[in-house]
Amino acid sequence: MKKNVLIIGAGGVGQVVAHKCAQHNRLLGDIHIASRNINKCLAIIDSIHEKGALQNRKGVLKAHRLDAMDTHATRELIEATGAQIVINVGHAFVNMSVLQACIETGAAYIDTAIHEDPTKICETPPWYANYEWKRKALCAEKGVTAILGCGFDPGVVNAYAALAVREYFDQVDSIDIIDINAGSHGKYFATNFNPEINFREFTGQVWSWQDGQWKSNKMFEVKRTDDLPVVGQQTAYLTGHDELHSLSQHLDVPNIRFWMGFGEHYINVFTVLRNLGLLSEKPVRLDNGQEVVPLQLVKAVLPDPASLAPSYVGKTCIGNIVKGTKDGKPREVFVYNVADHVEAYAEVGSQGISYTAGIPAAAAAILIAQGVWDVRKMVNVEELPYQPFINLMNDIGLPTQIRENGEDALVSFSDEALAAAA
Amino acid sequence: MKKNVLIIGAGGVGQVVAHKCAQHNRLLGDIHIASRNINKCLAIIDSIHEKGALQNRKGVLKAHRLDAMDTHATRELIEATGAQIVINVGHAFVNMSVLQACIETGAAYIDTAIHEDPTKICETPPWYANYEWKRKALCAEKGVTAILGCGFDPGVVNAYAALAVREYFDQVDSIDIIDINAGSHGKYFATNFNPEINFREFTGQVWSWQDGQWKSNKMFEVKRTDDLPVVGQQTAYLTGHDELHSLSQHLDVPNIRFWMGFGEHYINVFTVLRNLGLLSEKPVRLDNGQEVVPLQLVKAVLPDPASLAPSYVGKTCIGNIVKGTKDGKPREVFVYNVADHVEAYAEVGSQGISYTAGIPAAAAAILIAQGVWDVRKMVNVEELPYQPFINLMNDIGLPTQIRENGEDALVSFSDEALAAAA
Fold first, then answer.
1. What is the ipTM of this complex?
2. Which residues of chain A are within 8 Å of residue B268 when distances are taken between CB atoms?
3. How many domains is chain B built from?
4. Which of A355, A380, A393, B419 could form a disulfide with A344 if both were Cys (CB 3.0 to 4.6 A apart)?
5. Where does the Saccharopine dehydrogenase NADP binding domain start and stop, copy by copy (chains A, B) (predicted)?
6. Is residue B422 part of a domain?
């Protein structure tokens, strides 16, 4: 039974995680938020108080200034706060330093996206083997719980993959993860999370897992159009994404692909920026001698993703189209969630993309605090019991639906199923 | 009779001017080239020697390092070189400092584009009144020859306007200056001259002279399509441009407009960059604290315009569609030049856009050296006799054509006409 949570990162996802942890602070204990920019932490704390979100009004809720690239400073903050659960929703460049601090202190570690080296794009698959999994043995040896990639995608979709494989099929041929944001922010152009990370997803090779091996494509080379619940007809493009790099290693499924929805306008802007070299992470030299990373300038001129939330309208639909056989017959299901930008903003002050990424991380913290997911080793989400996770998310904002033969139904588990999974 | 030429600026236009001056150095005397980057001057000198372009092989041809924003340094260089003619084809930000150095030394001044303040875009019309014309009285008082805007447009098209008004019409209703580059550089995207200056033409209001007053439009708001000599059917957009700001003041013509040809791809890239704020001249602050001017970064990632020359193919067509009445009947003529990118590169190592801008400036230097244009005051090109200018350009690379009723003919002047004009 761990308690006291340190949230690292005060962007849109950090805001969601902080609100949701605050709503459960009787179980979770003290809530701490740390960022390089303490003002962003303080703004989140203000918004939690404004919404009266603290379940225990007398609970500790504190802001801290932290450079999470600094393992020593992170370790000191973990020790000073007594945090036994660290939720890392900071920059993807800080994963390994924060994980190291958790290993040194014994705190449980949760993140929502894979580690990245700022100087590299799209490394050799499987990506987790390049960084995180190198600490697997050490986590097991020290009994440190580390849950990797526990946002929506990766995260919830990994649980959906495990659910489908275990409960709906005898054999799975393909899992196609579809991520559609059918919402509108009303700006000329914006990314829904940190542009520096967002664009990195599309600038390198597109890795997918096909016929049991890695296949490389170019971005926007392969697309599909599906008629999806609530959001309707949507076109999505084969995209490289974290979850393929663990699901391919943990599930016996020959085809696992990730598809992200893009409108033509997004693709046009992206294509112009990429072709001009403005998405490069390599510095260029200006006439005045300045060395500037083009991608950092693009980030600076784009709207702050957090600023999109108040005017964001529409829905997201993210889920897994799974095909295979059951009892000798072909079967196809779509396991999915639909979230609403306006509802997300009303509850936690963030838009739907941040909401879908942040709620699962908070859910993981709750499950660790309850002992259900405190597994004392490093895991990806598909290696954990999905039943308590899906049930908890049904309750806290991200209900799971399944569509089969045109019929939609809520996915939830009985107490017996939960007990059997434990 | 002035002699010895100092060329300031070693970009594509500087290369053309230097080659053409070298081809006429028996008249022009010593040729000096100055730039912040002396290596660019040395490269031009190498290319002049490679082509054996020096008319007098023993003539002086020298490179100098110069920051032309520094009037004192410019004055010292004019004095040290004994230059009596300064051709300023540097950055548009240096006009006023170079002009000042000419006024102080008595050297003749020639430029090809209007002065710009780096911190301002698209100031109040007429633009010349904001900077250059404030020195008109001083030039007259000191007897300093200053020829403003003597590239192709502004420059040659100003002469074409004067020619049409004086020789082809009793009354001119409209002059539409059309600038079409039907060439192809083979890159994804590039500007044909310094992007920092190029984009500034399109980011502010579009001023045009209509019904005898200034009218403001937005860029890409108004377009026209014409069937033009050699380049065929071409679409051009109402664009703000230097020459309108003198022609409107010097000619009694109620409608003077400038139209620049753009392909859909150019407009798309430009629109994306502008809408994202990447063409701004105002610095933005990056996460790392750097203050960066977006336009300067865009310049740094785009191809160097000079690098386009070797692979540039196709033609340019620039000229004036003039409408009015003659002998009581409506008349329409198109006075124009067609230039060829490949031929330009073969002769002077620059592409056609630089060629059309540089030849007229060199022609002005020749006419000053001959005493024909050494007017000892500040003028725009339409105030000068166009006959020797057009004749000279016929000989040195930019022949003038006129199209009327579908018939094309060379425009040139007899010795009697030249004598009458003198």
1. 0.73
2. 268, 272
3. 2
4. A355
5. 5-147
6. no
